[in-house]
Amino acid sequence: MSGQPLKTPHPKADANWKEFTEGIPGFVEAINDGMDCIVHLSHEMNTGPEAVIGMLTGSLADNLYDIMFLCAHERRDGALRLLRTPYEKYLYANFISKHPESAEDFIHFNSIQAKSLISGIEDHYNYKMSDHGREGLDNLVAAAQKKIKREKCKECGAGFPRMWTKVTPEQMAKDAGLESIHVLAYRYATLFIHPSWMGLSDQLNATIQLPSIVAVVHKLVFETIKLQWLQLKKTPTITGRSAEVIQRLVKVAQ
C-alpha cells in the first residue's frame, strides 16, 4: 500500500478544467475507477460498526462524483461548498474504525436529530405524529441521552446533546493524518456553506483554484480505499482490482 496521494498537479495552480485534465492524462479515469472501487467495497461492509463505515464511505463516493461534475463545469464555488461533506464522512469513518464502540453513539444520535426535525414539521405543517410513534421516538431519545453527554443550548435552553461525539473535527483530522487538507476541506469550505464575507468575496471574484479542489478529491479517494481495505481484510497489503486502482491513483499523482 505504498505511494503518495496527489500533492502538486502538473498544470499551473490556477488551471481550468481543460488545462488540468490535459496536463494530467488519465486523472479523471483514475478517480472514477477509485470511486467505483469505494462503492463496491462499501457493499461488503454490512455488519456492526463496519456497516456504519460502509454507509459513510459508500455515500462519500457519491458526494465526490458531484464535486467532480461541478469542477468539470467550472462551478468551483459549488464544488468547494460540497467538499466538507465527504471530508467529514471520511473523518467519521476513520474515527469509528479505530473506536468501534462509537458507532453506537453515531446511530443513537439519529433519534435526537429526528425528534428535532419532527417537532419542526409539526410546528409548521399540517402533520401530527401518532401517539405510538411519539412514544417510540421518545424512548429512543431517552436511550441516546443516557449515552451521549447533554449540552444546554445558550440560545434556546434545550438540553439535548448537540454532537454525537466530544472529539472535534480537528482532533479527528490529526488522528487520520489529514491535517494537510483540513483547512481547505473543512474550514474554508465552511465559509461557503455558511454566509461569510470571505466566502462571498471569493465566490463573486472567482478566486477559487480548481487544482486545489481536485487534489483533495484525489486524497479522499486514495485514503478511503486504504481505510476500507484495512477494515475488511485486516491487512495493509492491497491486492486484486483495489490494488490496480491504487496504482493508477499513484501514477497520476507522480
Describe this structure in words.
- This protein has 254 residues and is mainly alpha-helical.
- It has a domain at 17-102 and 168-253.
- 71% of the residues lie in helices and 0% in strands.
- It has 11 helices and no strands.
- Helix 3 (48-72) packs antiparallel against helix 4 and helix 8 crosses helix 9.
- It is globular and about 60 Å long.
Defining key terms:
254 residues; mainly alpha
- Please provide the ordered H/E string of secondary-structure elements: HHHHHHHHHHH
How many individual β-strands?
0
Helix content: over 70%
Rg calculated over all Cα atoms: 20 Å
Roughly what is the average pLDDT, rounded to an integer?
87
Oligomer: single chain
Distance between the termini: 16 Å
Please state the overall shape, judged from the principal axes of the Cα atoms: globular
- Helix count from the secondary structure assignment: 11
**Regions with pLDDT < 50 over 5+ consecutive residues?**
none
What structural class should be given to the helix and strand makeup?
mainly alpha
What is the strand content?
Answer: under 5%
Major sheet summary line:
none
In short:
The protein is mainly alpha-helical. Helix content is 71%, strand content 0%.
Write the layout of secondary structure elements.
Layout: H1 17-23, H2 27-42, H3 48-72, H4 76-98, H5 102-124, H6 131-147, H7 169-176, H8 179-193, H9 197-204, H10 210-233, H11 240-253
